[in-house]
Structures are given as C-alpha cells and as structure tokens.
Q: What sequence folds into this?
C-alpha cells in the first residue's frame, strides 16, 4: 500500500470549477494499492474555504473519515483577487451558470481551526522518512510552506507528484497551478525532492466523455454517484467552451500513475519556472541536463532534474479509474 497525502483545490459541484481534484480523491479512496492518510486544501481552482467544504462534503457522503486540513488562502506573492475574479466569476459572465442548476447547494461546514496544512504535511512526512508520497494537484503554496518550515522535508518525502506547468502547447503560456503561485512552484521544483511532474502538455492527452460517465453510473455506489453527479455539468461546460468531446482529467493522472507506472512515460529534465514580472511570469521551461546548446548569458542552474511525464495512454488511465470505481464499496 502506498501511503499518500493529497494537497488539492477541489471544486466538484461548484459552478465553473474543475472536477478533476475530486476524481483524483475518488481514485485514491477506491484503489486498494493506495492509503490516503491526509487531505490538505489550498486556494486555486476554488477559494480555500470552498475547496475545504467540497472535500468535507465528499467524505461525508461516503461516510469516510480522513483528516482534511485547510492550508493557504493566498499565494506567497501573487495577488489573489485577479485570480479569484477570473476563476470564480467566469462562468456567470459566460451565462452558463444554469448548467449547475440541478446540483444542490453545498452545505456550510463548521471549522474554527487555524489553517495548518503545512504543519500536517511536514509532521507526517518527516516522522515517516521515505514512506509518504505527496500528490500536489493545486497551486504549490502549501508544499512551499512545508519546505520552508521543515528543512528535512525534501529528503524525507518519498515522491512529490505534481500537476502543473506547460512547455509547448499552443495558446498556453502557463497553467493555473503554477500561475496562481509561481514563487511556490519554483521553490518546490528546485527543492531537490524526488519529483514527478504532469504538465498540461500531457494532461491534455487525457479525456473523459459522457459515455465514460454512463459506464461509471452503472456501478451505482456512493463514490461513482458522487463523481457522475458532479462531473456532468463541468463536462457540458468543457464541451461548450473548449469544444472538446468531453473533459480533460488533469489531476487524476497523478494518482493513477502511482497505481500503474505504465500509464505515462517520463523523462528526466531540468525545469525552470519564471517568477519575472513580465510576460514570462509563471511559464515553465525544460531541457535535458547538459544538452543546452547555448548557455551564454544564463545564470548557472544548480538544481536537480525531475521526472516529467511526456506521453499518456488514456485507455490505460480510464481502465484504472473504471476498475477502482467499480469495486468501491
Ligand atoms: O491546469 C490544470 C489545473 O487547474 C488542475 O489542477 C485543475 O484542477 C485546475 O485547477
Ligand atoms: Ca487541481
């Protein structure tokens, strides 16, 4: 059993919010090769407190008890308001709120604890060196805070599997996770930890369709029902606004790759995240160690290469998801 933490920004059931974090949580809960020990919440796809309510509601529906701990509501430096305006209000401006009409409003969750995601992650990882894998599928603010607070974290964590960044995809200079907190992304990528990265280049090779959801609907268990109910409106939104046959399922790839390492191929690359205040901000670049033709004028790069996913087998990915959700009870 692989022991994992998922640091996420879930949005299942929230108008205009991506549902892939919820699918990643679902796969981790359903897989018999994964033990999900901690869920931590960061602001990104949804505001921090919304993501917290989504995760709590999901666990409540499933009658599952796993600690859910709030983390950062703000990036290290990047101002939050423009991102909240973009991520939380776009669907209303597009006149597509009604796609979510059939979903019940999310109940409030009482939580008076202070946010302590970084401490919860740091304690779990550093008290169990080499044992815990961190799946980071939102902005990397909580993980950067953990690195700052726990100097042993980078060498104690078994692996950090990250969804973030983009290298060569038309019209995408950056992805949401790195963009919401580029300074945090840089700290984590350069930390020296054993990292596997799923950039947008590879997560846009994934695809889930309404036909796939029909199959999941047949499983008719609390987890499959939660996924189908919350994914249908997002999928319709994705079909209308992105002109796709369904929706990408970025984040679930990070969990699925822990279950079946053949789902995606990986190569070792040096990765650099720009924190400049210009049009390169939050963009990422990669190159093979020692292979750069021109380095004149560049500051020497001292951080280690990381594993970057480069090709995904979507059929294999769906098989892993179907198999886990079918036998969930
Ligand atoms: O860029 C894709 C990322 O943004 C995913 O983590 C998804 O959940 C969205 O927030
Ligand atoms: Ca996410």
A:
């Amino acid at each position: 059993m692989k022991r994992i933490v998922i640091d996420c920004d879930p949005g299942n059931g929230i108008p205009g919010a991506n549902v892939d974090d919820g699918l990643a949580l679902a796969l981790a809960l359903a897989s018999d090769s994964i033990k999900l020990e901690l869920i931590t919440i960061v602001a990104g796809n949804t505001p921090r407190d919304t993501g917290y309510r989504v995760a709590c509601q999901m666990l409540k529906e499933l009658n599952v008890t796993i600690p859910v701990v709030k983390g950062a509501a703000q990036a290290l430096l990047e101002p939050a308001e423009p991102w909240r305006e973009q991520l939380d209000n776009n669907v209303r401006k597009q006149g597509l709120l009604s796609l979510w009409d059939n979903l019940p409003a999310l109940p409030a969750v009482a939580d008076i604890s202070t946010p302590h995601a970084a401490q919860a992650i740091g304690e779990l990882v550093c008290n169990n060196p080499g044992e815990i894998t961190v799946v980071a599928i939102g902005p990397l603010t909580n993980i950067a805070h953990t690195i700052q607070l726990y100097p042993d974290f980078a060498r104690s964590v078994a692996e950090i599997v990250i969804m973030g960044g983009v290298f060569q995809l038309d019209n995408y200079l950056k992805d949401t996770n790195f963009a919401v907190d580029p300074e945090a992304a840089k700290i984590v990528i350069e930390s020296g930890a054993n990292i596997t990265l799923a950039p947008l280049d590879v997560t846009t090779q994934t695809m889930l369709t309404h036909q796939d959801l029909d199959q999941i609907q047949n499983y008719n268990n609390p987890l499959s029902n939660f996924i189908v109910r919350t994914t249908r409106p997002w999928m319709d939104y994705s079909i209308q606004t992105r002109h796709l046959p369904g929706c990408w399922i970025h984040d679930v790839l990070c969990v699925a790759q822990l279950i079946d390492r053949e789902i995606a191929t990986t190569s070792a690359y040096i990765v650099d995240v720009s924190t400049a205040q210009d049009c390169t901000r939050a963009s990422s670049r990669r190159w093979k160690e020692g292979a750069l033709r021109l380095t004149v004028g560049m500051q020497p790069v001292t951080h280690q290469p990381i594993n970057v996913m480069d090709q995904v087998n979507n059929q294999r990915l769906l098989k892993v998801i179907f198999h886990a959700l079918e036998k969930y009870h």
In short: The CA atoms of residues 21 and 177 lie 12 Å apart. The beta strands are 2-8, 34-41, 68-70, 132-136, 159-163, 195-198, 264-273, 284-287, 306-312. Residues 8-9, 20-21, 44-45, 137-138, 251 surround calcium ion (ligand 2) (CB under 6 Å). The two ends are 18 Å apart (CA to CA).
